[in-house]
Amino acid sequence: MDRNCNNSTPNRLNSSSPFVLPWFKETRLVLILVAGLSVALFFRRVAFNRHRRLVRSYAEVERKVAQRTQELEIANRELLHSQKMNALGTLSAGIAHDFNNIPLDH
């Protein structure tokens, strides 16, 4: 009996159960714990697989970008060379035209 004249028994949670089991002996709690851990491990694996696929996909995108950048640089060099040749041809044609049209004074 306590100071307020209440009867209390330290081993009883309520009047229907004679004692309280530790959590690891409570079957429902252990099953809930196992189910929760299973779900957590499942989603961990899903997240890991998605991360791995993203890393692979990112590497593939980087490889394609590098390849297309290299192709673009080659195309730009070829265009510059083509423009230089065009300008040189125009200059040569102009010089040839000037030589063909030199006035002849006798």
Main attributes of the structure:
106 residues; mainly alpha; 1 helix; 70% helix; rod-shaped
In short:
The protein has 106 residues and is mainly alpha-helical.
Report the average pLDDT across residues. Answer: 88
Q: Figure out the total of helices.
A: 1
Q: Note the overall shape.
A: rod-shaped
**Order of helical and strand elements:** H
Helix content: 55-70%
What Rg, in angstroms, do the CA atoms define? 44 Å
Beta-strand residue fraction: under 5%
Low-confidence parts lasting 5 or more residues at pLDDT below 50? none
Based on secondary structure, the structural category is mainly alpha
DSSP summary, beta strand count: 0
Biggest sheet record: none
Distance between the termini: 146 Å
